[in-house]
Structures
1.
Amino acid sequence: MSGLSMSSFSFEPLPTAEVEAAEERFTVFTDEVRRLMDLTIRSTVDEDRLSQAEALIRQAADLLAESAPPGPAGVHYNDQGRSWNWGNAVVGVRNAIAPPVRLTWDDDDLVHAEVELGAAYEGPPGSVHGGVSALLLDHLMGETASSRHTKLTVTGTLTLRYVQPLPLGRVRMEARIAETSGRKVTVTAWIGNDNGPAVEATGLFIVPRWAENPEVVTDIGSLD
Amino acid sequence: MSGLSMSSFSFEPLPTAEVEAAEERFTVFTDEVRRLMDLTIRSTVDEDRLSQAEALIRQAADLLAESAPPGPAGVHYNDQGRSWNWGNAVVGVRNAIAPPVRLTWDDDDLVHAEVELGAAYEGPPGSVHGGVSALLLDHLMGETASSRHTKLTVTGTLTLRYVQPLPLGRVRMEARIAETSGRKVTVTAWIGNDNGPAVEATGLFIVPRWAENPEVVTDIGSLD
C-alpha cells in the first residue's frame, strides 16, 4: 500500500511506565463506555429514563470535549521500543468498538486470542456478524505476519470461508505463519468455539519496501 | 451455514409506524453514544474530568440497566413485511459500533452507500482499519446478494484485495451482483474515496436450503 511511511508513526517521549499506567486507566474507563454501548442495544426502559440517560451521556461527552484535539489517535512509539495504538478498532484500549482483543504469542509463528463477543457484535440472530469475524481475523493475521513485531506488514489479500454460524459469547481464534517468501508472508487462521472453526481464512501480508529497513526499530508490527 | 433457520427470526406484532418511530428515537440516542465513544479516544482532559465523566456514564448505564433483558437484539419482522435488526454491527440503529451504514439500492443488482468513518475506525495511522473495510463490505455485499431482500443469503466465501490505504473520513462503497446460478450469487464490490478503490472484493453468497421457500415472506435479506 502506498501513502503510508515510517513518518506516519509519531515518536512520543512518553516512558513505558506512563504508557502502561494510561492504558490501565483507559481500560477501566472504556469498559464503562462498552457497558453503556451494550445497554443501549438491550435496554427496554421508558422514555423518561431514556431522556435522563441521554442527558447524562451528553454531560459526560461535554466534559471530555473540553480538551479533545481533532483527528484520530494514531500510532505512537517511544525510545524504549514500546508502541501504542489506543484508537485501534480491534485492540485499542480507548476504543469501545474494540472488544478489545488481547493477543498471545505461543511462538514466533503462532498467535491466539480468546474474547467475549456480546450483543454489539451481532449479525444473524444470536450470531457474530460475519464481517466482525473478518475484522478480528484480519487484525490477528496481520499481527501474526509481523513475527512478534520484528517486521512491519500490510494486508495484501484476505480470503475467508464461512463454515458455520458463530454464536455470540466466548470465541477463540488462532493464526499461524504458513510460509514466508521474501517480503511476502502467508498466514492461515480460524475463528470459532468448542464446536470448531466457524470462519477459516488465508491471507497474504506484505512488508512494504519503505519498511524493509526502517530507520526506527519499534514494535509497531502490523499496519491493520 | 447450519444452526440458523426461519425460527431464528422472531415475529413481533409491532406496526411499521411504531418501528419507524423507535428507529428515529434511537438514532438520536445512539448518536450521543457514538459521540462519547469518539471523545473517549480523542480527549486529553485531566483525571478530575475523566472521573466525573466516568461517574456520569455509569449513572446513564445504570438507568438503562433498570430494564434490560439479557441476550442480543435479534432480528424481528412484523406482518407488514417490515424487518428490523437494531443491534446489527454495521446497520443497527441502536448499535454504536455501527456507523451506521445506510444502503441505497440503485437497481436490483447495484447497491451503494456513503459513510463518515472517524477515529473509532482507525487501523494504520489516519487510515481505516483493513478489517473495518472487510466488515462493511461483507455486509453491503450480503445485502446486495439478497436482491432487495427478495431472497435470504449467507456468506460462503469472501476475498478482499487491499489496493491502497483508505484515509479516515468520508468513504464510498458499491456492490453489484456479477452472477446468479441456482442458490449461488456472486457479488463484486469496492470501498474507497475520490482516489478510487482502496479495497476490492468478490464474494460468494448462498441461499440456504431452508430459506429457498420460506413460509414467512419478510424483507430480512442477508444474514450478515
2.
Amino acid sequence: MKKLRLGLPKGSLQEATFQLFERAGYHITVTGRSYYPHIDDPEIEVVLLRAQEIPRYVAEGVLDAGLSGYDWIQENEVDVVEVAELVYSKQSRRPVRLVLAVAQDSPFKEVKDLEGKRIATEFVRLTKRFLAAHGVNATVEFSYGATEAKVPDVVDAIVDLTETGSSLKAHNLRVLATILESTPRLHANRQAWNDPWKRAKLEKLALLLKGAIAAYSKVGLKMNVPGDKLPDVLAILPAMKHPTVSPLHNGNWVAVEVVIDEHQVRDLIPALKAAGAQDIIEYPLNKVIP
Amino acid sequence: MKKLRLGLPKGSLQEATFQLFERAGYHITVTGRSYYPHIDDPEIEVVLLRAQEIPRYVAEGVLDAGLSGYDWIQENEVDVVEVAELVYSKQSRRPVRLVLAVAQDSPFKEVKDLEGKRIATEFVRLTKRFLAAHGVNATVEFSYGATEAKVPDVVDAIVDLTETGSSLKAHNLRVLATILESTPRLHANRQAWNDPWKRAKLEKLALLLKGAIAAYSKVGLKMNVPGDKLPDVLAILPAMKHPTVSPLHNGNWVAVEVVIDEHQVRDLIPALKAAGAQDIIEYPLNKVIP
Amino acid sequence: MKKLRLGLPKGSLQEATFQLFERAGYHITVTGRSYYPHIDDPEIEVVLLRAQEIPRYVAEGVLDAGLSGYDWIQENEVDVVEVAELVYSKQSRRPVRLVLAVAQDSPFKEVKDLEGKRIATEFVRLTKRFLAAHGVNATVEFSYGATEAKVPDVVDAIVDLTETGSSLKAHNLRVLATILESTPRLHANRQAWNDPWKRAKLEKLALLLKGAIAAYSKVGLKMNVPGDKLPDVLAILPAMKHPTVSPLHNGNWVAVEVVIDEHQVRDLIPALKAAGAQDIIEYPLNKVIP
Amino acid sequence: MKKLRLGLPKGSLQEATFQLFERAGYHITVTGRSYYPHIDDPEIEVVLLRAQEIPRYVAEGVLDAGLSGYDWIQENEVDVVEVAELVYSKQSRRPVRLVLAVAQDSPFKEVKDLEGKRIATEFVRLTKRFLAAHGVNATVEFSYGATEAKVPDVVDAIVDLTETGSSLKAHNLRVLATILESTPRLHANRQAWNDPWKRAKLEKLALLLKGAIAAYSKVGLKMNVPGDKLPDVLAILPAMKHPTVSPLHNGNWVAVEVVIDEHQVRDLIPALKAAGAQDIIEYPLNKVIP
Amino acid sequence: MKKLRLGLPKGSLQEATFQLFERAGYHITVTGRSYYPHIDDPEIEVVLLRAQEIPRYVAEGVLDAGLSGYDWIQENEVDVVEVAELVYSKQSRRPVRLVLAVAQDSPFKEVKDLEGKRIATEFVRLTKRFLAAHGVNATVEFSYGATEAKVPDVVDAIVDLTETGSSLKAHNLRVLATILESTPRLHANRQAWNDPWKRAKLEKLALLLKGAIAAYSKVGLKMNVPGDKLPDVLAILPAMKHPTVSPLHNGNWVAVEVVIDEHQVRDLIPALKAAGAQDIIEYPLNKVIP
Amino acid sequence: MKKLRLGLPKGSLQEATFQLFERAGYHITVTGRSYYPHIDDPEIEVVLLRAQEIPRYVAEGVLDAGLSGYDWIQENEVDVVEVAELVYSKQSRRPVRLVLAVAQDSPFKEVKDLEGKRIATEFVRLTKRFLAAHGVNATVEFSYGATEAKVPDVVDAIVDLTETGSSLKAHNLRVLATILESTPRLHANRQAWNDPWKRAKLEKLALLLKGAIAAYSKVGLKMNVPGDKLPDVLAILPAMKHPTVSPLHNGNWVAVEVVIDEHQVRDLIPALKAAGAQDIIEYPLNKVIP
C-alpha cells in the first residue's frame, strides 16, 4: 500500500496538533514505540520529531511531508514545498515573532550597536544572515535553552521567539528588531510533491486541516424571519457570506442560516433581533469548507 | 474611547463567570496584573473583586456595573440598578438560600427562641434586620469563615448560605428560618445607567449572557416527517415553542426543527418517533435568543 | 411511585457510563451514600455495583435491570433478558476478548497441550466450560488480579480479558485461543421484563442510550448545492442515508443535510466539494435516532 | 546461587511494604516486568501478588515465604509457618478487625438472628466457619468489593475488614461480632523453613524488619546530667530501658542516652529537665534492635 | 477529666501547625467533624478556627488558649496572656510585617499625605489606631481580600501583611510605613492561666513546641579528637554551647559532641577538621531543650 | 564583597542539586528572576544554566565554577580545573554511559561497520573524535532530542547517554561501544582557581558537598557491649572504620559507635547481635567527613 510519511512536532505543539488532526477526522494515539503514534488512516505513517529537525528530514526525503514552523524551515536553509499555512495554536492563533532583544537598560539602540558583541540563540543561521544583512559582525553562539535569562550576565543580546512578549518583559528585555514572523506550515519534500498520489493525499489533508482550523473561530447562526423583514436581515449579514434562506411551511416566514466569525456574534445578534429575526440560535461547528 | 468598568467576582464563581462570558462571546484571560484580566472587547474594562465588595464599589461609582449575588447587594444596603438575573452556577442552576441554623439537637424551635443568644455570620446587617423584624435581640458577630463549625461550641446559631443543604447536614445543623433566596445579578451604578452609551452596552451584554445561559439547558432537535404525520408531530411539541417546518425536496416530506429544554428530550424523542418522525438528531447549542 | 431499580458498574467503566447517561439525557451525581448516586429521573433508582456481580443480582431480582459485560453474564451462568448491546467504551468502541494465553516461549501450541496444567483466571466457570468442550482436564484457580503476571512463574496459562493486546504483549504472553468476545449489555430480570411499565421504561432508556452512542461516531454535514449538481452530490452520499434536501430561497439552489459516520468525512468532504457542493459545514451531534 | 523467593502484597500495602524494606536496608525498585521488582540483595527474589493469594502460593511452594495478613492466611486454610508478626501500617499501627456487620436500624441483635439470611463477604470460608461455630445457617456469597454498600438493599449482613470503624459508620452499619483480629505476618513454606539456609535468611530478614518497625515509634534521647542528679534522672527513665551512662571529660558530669517510645517523650522531657538534666536532645532512629 | 481547650489556626498555617505539633510529640488528625481534629492527648481538645477570630474567643473564654499572630491579637484589642512566641513558619522563620503601602508612582511620601484619602485593610482597628497616633484623618474600609490589587484604582492606600515584599512589588506598591511586626503566639485566657492545672499543661506544651522549633535550625555534630588537640577544637566551638566531651577507650582520644545552629556548620566543619578533629558526623535532631 | 559565581544545572538535575546543597548546608530558593536563585551565602552567586553550556561558560570566565557532567566538559573541549567528582544522582548513584547504539536487528557488529553511515547525537564533537580514533568516516548530525527513536528509520546509529539501559532496550537498540563514562563534576575556571580566596571557597564547598554525599549511603550504629565481648565485636566491624569506644558508667560495659555503609547494615546487625552487642540502634546522618 502506498504511504505518506508525515513528521509531526513532538513536545509543546504535540497536543494541539493531535487535537487539530482529531477535528480534521484523523485519530492519532500514542501506543507502543512512542515516537511512531498510530493514526487511523492506513495510508499515512506518522513520525514524531522535534520541530527543529522536521524541515531537514523533509528536505532529505526521510519524510514525505511535515509540520513545523516557518522559523525552523528558514533556519534549516532547506528547499521544501509549502503546502499550507496552518495557524492553529489554541492560545493566540497569531504568529510568533523571532526577535533580537537586549537588556531593558542596556545602551543598545539599534542593530549596529551590537558590533563585536556576543549573542546567544537557538537560531544561529537566521541570526548570522540577519546580522550580515545589516553589516554587523558579532559572535553568535548556540543556546541550549533558557536563552532569555542570559542577558545581560552571560551575553549582550539574544535572538529568541516570543508570542505575547510577556516572557521578554518578565526578563527585563527590550526588542531591538523583529527578524521573522512565523506560523506553522505543512511542507513537503519536492520529489514527494511531484508524485501525484502523494500530492493528492497532501491536498486532501490540507483541505481538512484548514476546514478544522476555520471552525475554531466560526459558529453557525440560525433564525426565523418574517418574509417582509428578510431584506433588513440580509443587509446586516456580512456581504462575503452566503446565507442559506429556506422557505418555511407556515405562512411567509423563512429560515436564515449563516456561518460567521465567532467574534462578530456579539454585535450581530442584537442587530438581527432588532431587525426582526426571532428564535436565533448559535451552534458550534467542527469544520467549515468554503 | 468610552469604557464600561465591570466588576466580576474573584474566587469560587470566577471560573464559571469566565466560562459564561466565553459562551456569550467574550474571551477573558488573566495576564499580567492578575486582578485586571484582559477581555477582548476594548470597550469593557474588567476588575476582579470579591463578590462581597462589588455592590459597594458599584454604588460608589468605582465600577459602572458588576456581577454579585442578591445576598451581597442586600447586605451592603446600597442603591443600585438591577440589569439582569443570571442563574449560571453550573452545578445546581438554582438559588442559594441564606438561612438561620441551629444545632440539630438544640432546644431552639423558632426565631424568637434566640433572644439573648449569640449568632455568627458573614451577613451581619441582613441578620440584624431580620432579627429586628422578628423583634428579637441577639448578639450578632462577624464570622471570618468556617461558620457552620461554630455551632454549638462557639455560638448558639449561625446565618449562612446553603445550596443543597448537605453541608448543614454534615455539621448537624437544622434550619430555623430562610432569610433570603439569592441568585447572581448584573447590577449597575445609577448614574452609569442613565448614560445612554453605557446603558446600551449593558443591555447588549445582558442579552448575550442570557442567551448563553439559556443554551446551557437547551438543545436543538431536527427530524424528517411525512406530510400526513405533521399534525401528530406538532401536537407533541410543546406549545410555547415555534417549530421551524421546511418543505423537503423529495415528495411531501417536511423537516421539523425545534429548540427545547434538554430535560424534555427523554420524553419527547420516544413520542416523536412513535408519531412518525424519522432521522431525529439532537445537537448542542451555544446561545438561544428568543 | 413505580421505580426501575438499575445496577450500573462501579469502577473503571463508571465514568464512561455516567457520561453516556448524561448524553442520553440523564444526569447522575454521586452524593451522600456513594453507592446510591442521584439520577434526575424519579422513576429510576441507580445502584453502583461491581460489573462481576450485576448479572447475579439482576437474575435474583435484587435489581430490575443492569449494565454489565456479556463476559460476566456468561460467567454468572444466569438467565436474564438482553435488552440492548451498548458499545460505548470511549477508547476503542470495540469488543474486549476473553483469551487463553501462555508464555511467548512456552511449548504450548493448542488448547489440548494444557492437559494437567494450572490456569489462573477471574472467569473460573467460563474457563472450565471451555476446557470441557475441548476435552481438556486442567486445574483452574481463581485469580484475584494481576493475572497476566503469573505466567510462567506461578501458573502455566491464564484466561483474561484483552482489548488491544498490548498488555499481553508487555507480559510476553501469546494467545492460544479466544474464548469469548464481549460488549456491555443492558439486561433485565425476566419478571421485571414482563411488567409492562418496567419494560416500556427500559425500552425508552435503551432507545436514548443507543441514540447517544450512535452520536459518538456520527456528525452532521450541511452544504449548499446548485440544482443541476444535486444528482452528482446525492450519488456520492452513502446509499443507506436519507439526505434532507430543502429548496433555497434564492434561485435554484438547494440545501443538503445528512448525518454520516465521522470516519467517512475525510473522504466525503473532498468528493462533495469536487462535485459542486459549497459552504460545507460539519457540526457535532448529541443523539441520532434512526 | 541460592535464592529466597518472597511474595510481597501488591496494591494498598505495597508502598508501605517497600518503605519498611527500605528502612530495614533493602532497596526495592519496580522496573521492567512490574510484578518482579528489583531488590538489591541477589539472594532474594521478590514477586508482587495480591495479599489474598500469597498464603496459598506459599503453602503450595510456589513461594518460599510471603507477607500477608493473618486474615488471608486463615481464609486460605493453609498450613504455613509464621515467622514474624509485623505491625507496620503507617496510619494506625494497630490490627484490623474482621467483623460481622448489619444495618444500624436492622432488628438483628446477635449472630443467631442471621439464621436463613444472606451475607456478602470476601472471606467466604472464614464466615462459614464462624457461622458453623455459632450453629447458624445462612447464605454466604462472595463479594467482589464495595461490600459495605450492600447492606441493607442487597444483603442482610456483611463480613468485612475495618480499621477505625469510620467506613462502617459512614455506611450506617453496626458491628454484631468480631470474627478475627489481623496483622501482617511474614510466613514461610514448611519445607523452605526446614532448609537451614532459607531459615537463616528468613530469621535475619525478620530481625531487620522488626528493628525497622520498632524504630517507627521510638526516638533517641541524650542529655547531660550532674553526677549528683544522676539517681533522680535514672529514677524517671522507664525501668525496662537500659540507659547508657558515660562519664564526661569535664568534672563530674555524665552523659545519659536512652531509647524510648516517642509518645512518652512529652511527659519525660519536662520531668527530666525538672530533675536536673540539661541540653536534652531528641533524635530520630532508623532501627532499634534490643 | 480535665481538658485544655485549644484553638489552632485553620487555613494557610494549618499544615505547618500540625507538623510542629507532630515534632513536639502530638499527633493531630482531621477526622469526622473536620473542625474538631483528633489529638492523641486526652487532656487537650483542639478547635480549628480562623486565625483572625482565635484571640477573641480566647479572651471571651470560649477557648482556654490559642495560637494566632501578634497582629490579630492586637487587631482584636483583647486582653490575653502571652505564653510563648513561636516562630515556626517553615519558609521564612521570620516575622511578617503589617505595612501601609501606596502605588509606586503615587505622590504620597509620608503618612500624613493620606489625610482625607481612602484606605482598604483587613486590620481596620489597627489602622485607625495608627492613623490616630499620626494625627491623620482618612476613611478606613474593611477589605474582604485581594487587598493589594485595589491600589490605585479602587483605594489610595492599603494596610496589609507582607513577608518578603515580593507580592507588594508585583503589585507595584511602595511601603510608606511599617505598623507592626508579627509572629505567632501561644496565648491564654487570663482565667485559664490562673488555673494551676491548665497553666502547667500550657507550660509543658510550650516547652515541647519550643524544643521542636529549636530543632528545625539545629543539628548535632560528633567527632573524635586526639587529647592534645582538644583545646584547639574547643576553642572553635561557640562559647555559649556546652560540648559533651567523653573519654574514648583506646588511648588518649576523646569524643566531642555538640548541638549547633545549622547555618554555622559550613564554617565550623572545615575549621574543626583543620584543628585535628576526625570522623566528623552531622545528624538531624527532633527536639532541643536547653 | 568577594563573590564566587557558580553555575548549576537547570532541568532534570536541578532538584537533586538543590537537595544536595541543602544537605551540605546551603539553602537555595528560586525567587524573582528564576535563573538567578537565592542562596543563603552572600559570598556565592548562583546562575542556573543548561548542563551543556556550563563548562563553556566556566572556561570563558563568565562563571568562576560550575557543576556539570564529565560528558559535557569533554564535549565542549574546554580547559577547566576539576575540583571534585560528585556522584549524587539519587536514583542510581552510578555513572551514566555515553554509548554508540544501533538497531537490535541491524547488521552492524563493530564500530567500523558504520563507515559511511549516518549517526545522530547531541554529542557531535565527542562522536567525531571517537570515530576518528577508530578510523571511521560517517556523517554525524546534531540531534535536538528524542535521539533513541531515530534508529533505524531516520539514522543508522546514535550516540546517547544511558543510565540503566532500559530506555535503549525499550527502543530495541543494541550497544556497539561505550565512548565514555560520566559523573557530575565541580569544575573551575583556571584563573579563578589561582585566586586564593576563590580556591579556598571552592575547597570548602567541595568538602561539604562530599560530606553530604557520603551521608546519603551511610548510617550511624551505636550499641552497648560487655567488656569481655569487645574484641569479638571489634573484629566484626570493618577494618577501615574507626569505632568510637567509650566506657560506660555502670560496671565494665562499653558503648561502641561506628559509621558504616548502609548496605552493610543488614549483614552487620545480625552478626553484632550474635557477638554479644545489645541495644543496637541505627540512626540517619546528614554529613560524614572522614
